[in-house]
Protein backbone atom coordinates (compact mmCIF):
# COMPACT_ATOMS: atom_id res chain seq x y z
CA UNK A 1 0.00 0.00 0.00
CA UNK A 2 1.25 3.46 -0.92
CA UNK A 3 -0.39 6.46 0.71
CA UNK A 4 -0.07 10.25 0.97
CA UNK A 5 0.15 12.18 4.22
CA UNK A 6 -0.53 15.92 4.22
CA UNK A 7 0.93 18.44 6.68
CA UNK A 8 -0.03 22.11 6.76
CA UNK A 9 2.92 24.33 7.62
CA UNK A 10 2.86 27.59 9.55
CA UNK A 11 2.79 29.47 6.22
CA UNK A 12 -0.46 27.60 5.35
CA UNK A 13 1.24 25.67 2.50
CA UNK A 14 0.52 21.92 2.48
CA UNK A 15 3.50 19.58 2.25
CA UNK A 16 2.78 16.11 0.90
CA UNK A 17 4.59 12.90 1.90
CA UNK A 18 4.34 9.67 -0.09
CA UNK A 19 4.72 6.76 2.34
CA UNK A 20 5.05 3.01 1.70
CA UNK A 21 6.86 -0.16 2.73
CA UNK A 22 9.44 -1.65 0.39
CA UNK A 23 7.96 -4.48 -1.62
CA UNK A 24 4.50 -3.71 -0.28
CA UNK A 25 4.68 -6.21 2.59
CA UNK A 26 4.18 -5.46 6.28
CA UNK A 27 7.77 -6.40 7.03
CA UNK A 28 9.17 -4.08 4.37
CA UNK A 29 11.22 -1.10 5.55
CA UNK A 30 9.17 2.06 5.72
CA UNK A 31 10.00 4.63 3.03
CA UNK A 32 8.86 8.17 2.31
CA UNK A 33 9.45 11.02 -0.11
CA UNK A 34 8.56 14.64 0.65
CA UNK A 35 7.12 17.25 -1.71
CA UNK A 36 7.19 20.71 -0.18
CA UNK A 37 8.98 23.11 -2.52
CA UNK A 38 5.93 24.44 -4.37
CA UNK A 39 2.41 25.58 -3.66
CA UNK A 40 -0.06 23.27 -1.93
CA UNK A 41 -1.57 22.31 -5.29
CA UNK A 42 1.83 21.63 -6.86
CA UNK A 43 3.03 19.58 -3.90
CA UNK A 44 -0.09 17.41 -3.91
CA UNK A 45 -0.02 16.95 -7.70
CA UNK A 46 3.63 15.87 -7.66
CA UNK A 47 3.02 13.56 -4.72
CA UNK A 48 0.12 11.90 -6.52
CA UNK A 49 2.29 11.41 -9.60
CA UNK A 50 5.13 9.93 -7.55
CA UNK A 51 2.69 7.68 -5.70
CA UNK A 52 1.59 6.14 -9.01
CA UNK A 53 5.21 5.58 -10.05
CA UNK A 54 5.95 3.78 -6.77
CA UNK A 55 2.89 1.57 -7.28
CA UNK A 56 4.01 0.83 -10.85
CA UNK A 57 7.48 -0.10 -9.52
CA UNK A 58 5.99 -2.69 -7.14
CA UNK A 59 6.32 -0.52 -4.01
CA UNK A 60 9.98 0.20 -4.74
CA UNK A 61 11.73 3.44 -5.60
CA UNK A 62 11.24 4.31 -9.29
CA UNK A 63 14.31 3.42 -11.32
CA UNK A 64 16.69 6.38 -11.46
CA UNK A 65 14.96 8.38 -8.70
CA UNK A 66 17.17 9.91 -5.99
CA UNK A 67 15.41 10.65 -2.72
CA UNK A 68 14.87 14.35 -2.19
CA UNK A 69 16.09 15.22 -5.69
CA UNK A 70 14.03 13.25 -8.20
CA UNK A 71 15.54 11.87 -11.38
CA UNK A 72 19.07 13.20 -11.09
CA UNK A 73 21.99 12.37 -13.35
CA UNK A 74 25.06 11.26 -11.37
CA UNK A 75 28.41 12.89 -12.12
CA UNK A 76 30.53 11.16 -14.77
CA UNK A 77 29.72 7.99 -16.69
CA UNK A 78 27.71 7.55 -19.85
CA UNK A 79 24.94 10.21 -19.90
CA UNK A 80 22.83 8.17 -22.31
CA UNK A 81 22.77 5.18 -19.96
CA UNK A 82 22.08 7.30 -16.88
CA UNK A 83 19.14 9.29 -18.19
CA UNK A 84 15.61 7.87 -17.74
CA UNK A 85 13.60 6.67 -20.71
CA UNK A 86 11.44 9.17 -22.58
CA UNK A 87 8.30 7.46 -21.25
CA UNK A 88 9.56 7.68 -17.66
CA UNK A 89 10.45 11.36 -17.74
CA UNK A 90 7.29 11.99 -19.76
CA UNK A 91 5.12 10.42 -17.09
CA UNK A 92 6.85 12.38 -14.35
CA UNK A 93 6.36 15.61 -16.29
CA UNK A 94 2.67 14.96 -16.90
CA UNK A 95 1.96 13.96 -13.32
CA UNK A 96 3.44 17.18 -11.94
CA UNK A 97 1.38 19.50 -14.20
CA UNK A 98 -1.13 21.21 -11.93
CA UNK A 99 -3.46 23.10 -14.25
CA UNK A 100 -5.02 20.27 -16.29
CA UNK A 101 -8.14 18.17 -15.81
CA UNK A 102 -7.98 14.46 -14.91
CA UNK A 103 -9.16 13.62 -18.43
CA UNK A 104 -6.38 15.70 -20.00
CA UNK A 105 -3.78 14.01 -17.79
CA UNK A 106 -5.08 10.60 -18.86
CA UNK A 107 -4.92 11.67 -22.53
CA UNK A 108 -1.34 12.96 -22.24
CA UNK A 109 -0.17 9.77 -20.52
CA UNK A 110 -1.75 7.75 -23.32
CA UNK A 111 0.04 9.88 -25.93
CA UNK A 112 3.42 9.29 -24.25
CA UNK A 113 2.77 5.53 -24.36
CA UNK A 114 1.82 5.73 -28.04
CA UNK A 115 5.11 7.49 -28.79
CA UNK A 116 7.11 4.94 -26.79
CA UNK A 117 5.75 2.13 -29.03
CA UNK A 118 6.01 4.02 -32.31
CA UNK A 119 8.37 2.69 -34.97
CA UNK A 120 9.99 5.24 -37.27
CA UNK A 121 12.32 4.11 -40.06
CA UNK A 122 12.91 0.74 -38.44
CA UNK A 123 13.63 2.13 -34.96
CA UNK A 124 11.75 2.99 -31.76
CA UNK A 125 13.14 6.51 -31.21
CA UNK A 126 11.00 7.31 -28.18
CA UNK A 127 11.80 4.05 -26.40
CA UNK A 128 15.33 5.33 -25.80
CA UNK A 129 16.71 7.29 -22.85
CA UNK A 130 15.54 10.87 -23.18
CA UNK A 131 19.11 12.12 -23.69
CA UNK A 132 19.59 9.88 -26.76
CA UNK A 133 16.72 11.38 -28.78
CA UNK A 134 17.99 13.90 -31.31
CA UNK A 135 16.48 16.63 -33.45
CA UNK A 136 16.83 14.54 -36.66
CA UNK A 137 14.79 11.76 -35.04
CA UNK A 138 12.04 14.22 -34.12
CA UNK A 139 12.04 15.49 -37.70
CA UNK A 140 11.91 11.92 -39.06
CA UNK A 141 8.89 11.25 -36.86
CA UNK A 142 7.14 14.39 -38.09
CA UNK A 143 7.80 13.46 -41.72
CA UNK A 144 6.98 9.74 -41.60
CA UNK A 145 4.17 9.33 -39.06
CA UNK A 146 0.96 8.69 -40.96
CA UNK A 147 -1.28 11.07 -39.06
CA UNK A 148 -2.96 14.40 -39.76
CA UNK A 149 -0.69 17.43 -39.33
CA UNK A 150 -2.99 18.73 -36.60
CA UNK A 151 -2.55 15.48 -34.65
CA UNK A 152 1.23 15.63 -35.06
CA UNK A 153 1.22 19.26 -33.91
CA UNK A 154 -0.70 18.28 -30.75
CA UNK A 155 1.77 15.47 -29.97
CA UNK A 156 4.67 17.80 -30.71
CA UNK A 157 3.40 20.29 -28.14
CA UNK A 158 3.40 17.56 -25.47
CA UNK A 159 6.87 16.34 -26.54
CA UNK A 160 8.22 19.87 -26.31
CA UNK A 161 7.03 20.05 -22.72
CA UNK A 162 8.56 16.68 -21.86
CA UNK A 163 11.95 17.58 -23.34
CA UNK A 164 11.89 21.02 -21.75
CA UNK A 165 11.28 19.35 -18.40
CA UNK A 166 14.22 17.03 -19.12
CA UNK A 167 16.39 20.10 -19.76
CA UNK A 168 15.30 21.59 -16.42
CA UNK A 169 16.17 18.31 -14.70
CA UNK A 170 19.67 18.33 -16.18
CA UNK A 171 19.32 15.39 -18.59
CA UNK A 172 19.58 17.56 -21.70
CA UNK A 173 21.24 20.80 -22.64
CA UNK A 174 19.07 21.45 -25.72
CA UNK A 175 15.42 20.66 -26.42
CA UNK A 176 15.36 18.57 -29.65
CA UNK A 177 11.86 19.85 -30.38
CA UNK A 178 12.85 23.53 -30.19
CA UNK A 179 13.26 24.03 -33.95
CA UNK A 180 10.87 21.43 -35.31
CA UNK A 181 7.35 22.66 -34.55
CA UNK A 182 4.95 22.53 -37.54
CA UNK A 183 4.11 26.03 -38.73
CA UNK A 184 0.74 27.24 -37.50
CA UNK A 185 -0.31 28.33 -41.00
CA UNK A 186 0.46 24.86 -42.37
CA UNK A 187 -1.55 23.20 -39.62
CA UNK A 188 -4.46 25.51 -40.32
CA UNK A 189 -4.26 24.91 -44.07
CA UNK A 190 -4.26 21.14 -43.54
CA UNK A 191 -7.55 21.13 -41.67
CA UNK A 192 -10.86 20.51 -43.37
CA UNK A 193 -12.94 23.58 -44.13
CA UNK A 194 -15.76 24.38 -41.74
CA UNK A 195 -19.17 23.10 -42.82
CA UNK A 196 -22.07 25.54 -42.77
CA UNK A 197 -25.60 24.30 -43.44
CA UNK A 198 -27.90 26.34 -45.62
CA UNK A 199 -31.42 27.01 -44.39
CA UNK A 200 -32.80 24.35 -46.75
CA UNK A 201 -30.21 21.76 -45.69
CA UNK A 202 -30.95 22.41 -42.04
CA UNK A 203 -34.68 21.99 -42.54
CA UNK A 204 -34.13 18.70 -44.40
CA UNK A 205 -31.84 17.34 -41.66
CA UNK A 206 -34.28 18.24 -38.89
CA UNK A 207 -37.11 16.56 -40.80
CA UNK A 208 -35.02 13.38 -41.05
CA UNK A 209 -34.08 13.54 -37.36
CA UNK A 210 -37.73 13.60 -36.27
CA UNK A 211 -37.81 9.82 -36.59
CA UNK A 212 -34.94 9.22 -34.17
CA UNK A 213 -34.79 8.81 -30.39
CA UNK A 214 -32.90 11.05 -27.95
CA UNK A 215 -35.23 13.90 -29.04
CA UNK A 216 -32.68 14.19 -31.84
CA UNK A 217 -34.57 16.78 -33.87
CA UNK A 218 -34.95 19.07 -30.86
CA UNK A 219 -31.32 18.55 -29.85
CA UNK A 220 -30.22 19.55 -33.36
CA UNK A 221 -32.55 22.56 -33.37
CA UNK A 222 -31.37 23.71 -29.94
CA UNK A 223 -27.67 23.31 -30.80
CA UNK A 224 -27.98 25.21 -34.07
CA UNK A 225 -30.15 27.80 -32.33
CA UNK A 226 -27.75 28.47 -29.44
CA UNK A 227 -24.26 27.57 -30.68
CA UNK A 228 -23.53 25.45 -27.60
CA UNK A 229 -21.01 22.61 -27.73
CA UNK A 230 -22.26 19.02 -27.43
CA UNK A 231 -20.77 18.69 -23.94
CA UNK A 232 -22.51 21.91 -22.87
CA UNK A 233 -25.98 21.42 -24.26
CA UNK A 234 -26.24 17.82 -23.00
CA UNK A 235 -25.18 19.04 -19.52
CA UNK A 236 -28.01 21.59 -19.26
CA UNK A 237 -30.36 21.22 -16.30
CA UNK A 238 -33.92 22.52 -16.21
CA UNK A 239 -32.79 25.18 -13.71
CA UNK A 240 -30.34 26.52 -16.32
CA UNK A 241 -33.25 27.52 -18.56
CA UNK A 242 -34.97 30.85 -17.83
CA UNK A 243 -38.04 30.98 -20.06
CA UNK A 244 -39.26 34.26 -18.60
CA UNK A 245 -36.10 36.15 -19.54
CA UNK A 246 -35.38 33.87 -22.50
CA UNK A 247 -31.86 32.86 -21.47
CA UNK A 248 -29.89 29.71 -20.70
CA UNK A 249 -26.97 29.57 -18.29
CA UNK A 250 -23.90 27.58 -19.34
CA UNK A 251 -22.05 26.77 -16.10
CA UNK A 252 -21.04 23.11 -16.52
CA UNK A 253 -20.04 20.62 -19.19
CA UNK A 254 -19.21 16.94 -19.51
CA UNK A 255 -15.55 16.06 -18.89
CA UNK A 256 -13.69 12.76 -19.23
CA UNK A 257 -12.58 11.04 -16.01
CA UNK A 258 -8.91 10.41 -15.21
CA UNK A 259 -6.99 7.14 -15.50
CA UNK A 260 -8.26 5.87 -12.14
CA UNK A 261 -11.67 7.49 -12.29
CA UNK A 262 -10.47 10.85 -10.94
CA UNK A 263 -12.82 13.80 -11.34
CA UNK A 264 -12.63 17.54 -10.81
CA UNK A 265 -16.18 18.57 -9.93
CA UNK A 266 -16.45 22.25 -8.87
CA UNK A 267 -17.16 22.65 -5.15
CA UNK A 268 -20.41 24.52 -5.80
CA UNK A 269 -21.67 21.61 -7.90
CA UNK A 270 -20.56 18.71 -5.68
CA UNK A 271 -23.42 19.18 -3.23
CA UNK A 272 -25.97 19.02 -6.04
CA UNK A 273 -24.73 15.88 -7.79
CA UNK A 274 -27.04 12.87 -7.56
CA UNK A 275 -26.94 9.41 -9.11
CA UNK A 276 -28.96 10.65 -12.09
CA UNK A 277 -26.13 13.06 -12.92
CA UNK A 278 -23.50 10.33 -13.42
CA UNK A 279 -22.40 8.90 -16.75
CA UNK A 280 -19.78 6.29 -17.62
CA UNK A 281 -16.28 7.67 -18.20
CA UNK A 282 -17.56 11.23 -17.73
CA UNK A 283 -18.40 13.70 -14.97
CA UNK A 284 -19.90 17.18 -14.75
CA UNK A 285 -17.17 19.81 -14.49
CA UNK A 286 -16.38 23.36 -15.49
CA UNK A 287 -16.92 24.48 -19.11
CA UNK A 288 -13.95 24.56 -21.51
CA UNK A 289 -12.59 27.99 -20.48
CA UNK A 290 -13.52 30.71 -17.96
CA UNK A 291 -15.37 32.66 -20.67
CA UNK A 292 -17.26 29.52 -21.66
CA UNK A 293 -19.19 30.05 -18.44
CA UNK A 294 -21.80 32.40 -19.82
CA UNK A 295 -25.45 33.35 -20.22
CA UNK A 296 -26.89 32.95 -23.71
CA UNK A 297 -30.05 34.60 -24.94
CA UNK A 298 -32.56 32.42 -26.78
CA UNK A 299 -35.17 33.28 -29.37
CA UNK A 300 -38.89 32.77 -28.86
CA UNK A 301 -38.79 29.67 -31.08
CA UNK A 302 -35.97 28.23 -28.94
CA UNK A 303 -37.95 29.01 -25.81
CA UNK A 304 -40.93 27.09 -27.22
CA UNK A 305 -38.77 24.03 -27.94
CA UNK A 306 -37.14 24.09 -24.50
CA UNK A 307 -40.46 24.66 -22.72
CA UNK A 308 -41.77 21.43 -24.22
CA UNK A 309 -38.64 19.53 -23.19
CA UNK A 310 -38.60 20.68 -19.54
CA UNK A 311 -42.30 20.40 -18.85
CA UNK A 312 -42.94 18.28 -15.76
CA UNK A 313 -39.26 17.84 -14.92
CA UNK A 314 -37.46 18.65 -11.67
CA UNK A 315 -35.11 21.61 -11.51
CA UNK A 316 -32.03 19.35 -11.46
CA UNK A 317 -33.18 17.07 -14.28
CA UNK A 318 -31.33 17.17 -17.59
CA UNK A 319 -33.06 18.96 -20.46
CA UNK A 320 -31.90 16.28 -22.92
CA UNK A 321 -31.81 12.61 -21.93
CA UNK A 322 -31.41 9.20 -23.56
CA UNK A 323 -34.43 6.94 -24.21
CA UNK A 324 -33.79 5.38 -20.77
CA UNK A 325 -33.82 8.76 -19.05
CA UNK A 326 -30.06 8.87 -18.47
CA UNK A 327 -27.60 11.59 -19.60
CA UNK A 328 -26.78 11.64 -23.32
CA UNK A 329 -23.49 9.80 -23.85
CA UNK A 330 -21.60 11.06 -26.90
CA UNK A 331 -20.59 7.66 -28.28
CA UNK A 332 -24.09 6.19 -27.80
CA UNK A 333 -25.63 9.18 -29.54
CA UNK A 334 -23.14 8.91 -32.40
CA UNK A 335 -23.73 5.18 -32.89
CA UNK A 336 -27.52 5.12 -32.53
CA UNK A 337 -28.47 8.48 -34.00
CA UNK A 338 -25.80 10.53 -35.72
CA UNK A 339 -24.15 7.92 -37.94
CA UNK A 340 -27.42 6.46 -39.33
CA UNK A 341 -28.82 9.99 -39.72
CA UNK A 342 -25.80 11.04 -41.78
CA UNK A 343 -26.24 7.94 -43.96
CA UNK A 344 -29.78 9.09 -44.74
CA UNK A 345 -28.69 12.67 -45.32
CA UNK A 346 -26.04 11.59 -47.83
CA UNK A 347 -28.61 9.55 -49.75
CA UNK A 348 -30.64 12.74 -50.13
CA UNK A 349 -27.71 14.53 -51.70
CA UNK A 350 -26.61 16.55 -48.65
CA UNK A 351 -22.94 16.34 -47.69
CA UNK A 352 -22.35 14.81 -44.26
CA UNK A 353 -21.19 16.99 -41.39
CA UNK A 354 -20.11 16.75 -37.77
CA UNK A 355 -22.39 17.58 -34.87
CA UNK A 356 -19.98 20.42 -34.01
CA UNK A 357 -20.74 21.95 -37.42
CA UNK A 358 -24.14 22.93 -36.02
CA UNK A 359 -22.22 25.41 -33.83
CA UNK A 360 -20.44 26.75 -36.93
CA UNK A 361 -23.78 26.96 -38.73
CA UNK A 362 -25.22 28.99 -35.86
CA UNK A 363 -22.41 31.53 -36.27
CA UNK A 364 -22.83 31.70 -40.06
CA UNK A 365 -26.48 32.63 -39.57
CA UNK A 366 -25.62 35.35 -37.07
CA UNK A 367 -22.96 36.85 -39.34
CA UNK A 368 -25.26 36.74 -42.37
CA UNK A 369 -27.87 38.58 -40.30
CA UNK A 370 -25.40 41.30 -39.29
CA UNK A 371 -24.66 40.34 -35.67
CA UNK A 372 -21.44 42.05 -34.42
CA UNK A 373 -18.42 39.78 -33.92
CA UNK A 374 -17.86 40.84 -30.26
CA UNK A 375 -21.41 39.69 -29.48
CA UNK A 376 -20.77 36.41 -31.26
CA UNK A 377 -17.51 35.97 -29.31
CA UNK A 378 -19.35 36.34 -25.99
CA UNK A 379 -22.12 34.03 -27.14
CA UNK A 380 -19.69 31.27 -28.12
CA UNK A 381 -17.54 31.65 -25.01
CA UNK A 382 -14.33 32.34 -26.94
CA UNK A 383 -11.50 33.62 -24.75
CA UNK A 384 -10.35 36.06 -27.43
CA UNK A 385 -11.98 37.95 -30.30
CA UNK A 386 -8.99 36.78 -32.35
CA UNK A 387 -10.32 33.21 -32.18
CA UNK A 388 -13.69 34.38 -33.46
CA UNK A 389 -12.18 36.44 -36.29
CA UNK A 390 -9.71 33.72 -37.31
CA UNK A 391 -12.47 31.11 -37.43
CA UNK A 392 -15.37 33.06 -38.91
CA UNK A 393 -13.99 36.35 -40.24
CA UNK A 394 -14.08 35.08 -43.83
CA UNK A 395 -17.89 34.91 -43.63
CA UNK A 396 -18.24 38.68 -43.22
CA UNK A 397 -19.95 39.98 -46.37
CA UNK A 398 -20.26 43.68 -45.56
CA UNK A 399 -16.56 44.50 -45.90
CA UNK A 400 -16.27 43.10 -49.43
CA UNK A 401 -19.45 44.83 -50.57
CA UNK A 402 -18.31 48.16 -49.12
CA UNK A 403 -14.88 47.82 -50.78
CA UNK A 404 -16.54 47.09 -54.13
CA UNK A 405 -18.78 50.16 -53.79
CA UNK A 406 -15.77 52.37 -52.97
CA UNK A 407 -13.77 51.16 -55.98
CA UNK A 408 -16.78 51.48 -58.28
CA UNK A 409 -17.32 55.06 -57.12
CA UNK A 410 -13.78 56.02 -58.09
CA UNK A 411 -13.92 54.17 -61.40
CA UNK A 412 -17.19 55.95 -62.27
CA UNK A 413 -15.67 59.37 -61.59
CA UNK A 414 -17.57 59.91 -58.34
CA UNK A 415 -16.28 61.39 -55.08
CA UNK A 416 -15.75 58.99 -52.18
CA UNK A 417 -18.01 59.94 -49.32
CA UNK A 418 -18.27 58.19 -45.92
CA UNK A 419 -21.64 56.54 -45.27
CA UNK A 420 -24.23 58.89 -43.79
CA UNK A 421 -24.28 57.15 -40.39
CA UNK A 422 -20.53 57.70 -40.05
CA UNK A 423 -20.85 61.40 -40.90
CA UNK A 424 -23.68 61.74 -38.39
CA UNK A 425 -21.57 60.00 -35.77
CA UNK A 426 -18.74 62.45 -36.37
CA UNK A 427 -21.06 65.45 -36.07
CA UNK A 428 -22.63 64.07 -32.90
CA UNK A 429 -19.18 63.43 -31.43
CA UNK A 430 -18.06 66.98 -32.27
CA UNK A 431 -21.17 68.45 -30.62
CA UNK A 432 -20.69 66.29 -27.54
Automatic annotation (TrEMBL):
GO MF annotation list: DNA binding
Record keywords: DNA recombination, DNA-binding
Matches recorded under InterPro entries: DNA_brk_join_enz (IPR011010), Integrase-like_cat_sf (IPR013762), Integrase_catalytic (IPR002104), Integrase_recombinase_N (IPR010998), Tyrosine_recombinase_XerCD (IPR050090)
Residue ranges constituting the Tyr recombinase domain according to the UniProt record: 192-407
Keyword ATP-binding among UniProt keywords: no
UniProt key word DNA-binding: yes
GO biological process per UniProt: DNA integration; DNA recombination
Family assignment from sequence similarity: Belongs to the 'phage' integrase family.
Protein name: Integrase
Organism field: Nocardioides panzhihuensis
Amino acid sequence: MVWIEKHKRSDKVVSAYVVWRLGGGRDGEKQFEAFSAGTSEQNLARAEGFQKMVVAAGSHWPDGWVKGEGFVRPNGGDPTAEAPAFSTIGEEYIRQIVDITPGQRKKYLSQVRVLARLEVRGRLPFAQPVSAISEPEVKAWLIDWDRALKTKANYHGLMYGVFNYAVEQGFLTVNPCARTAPKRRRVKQSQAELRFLSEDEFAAVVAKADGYSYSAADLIRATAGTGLRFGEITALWVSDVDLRNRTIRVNKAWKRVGENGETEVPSWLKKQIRDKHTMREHYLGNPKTPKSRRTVSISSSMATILEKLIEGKAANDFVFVSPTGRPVHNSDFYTRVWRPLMDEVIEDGIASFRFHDLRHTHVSWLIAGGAPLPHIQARLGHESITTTIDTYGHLLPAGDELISDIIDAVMNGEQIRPPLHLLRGGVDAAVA
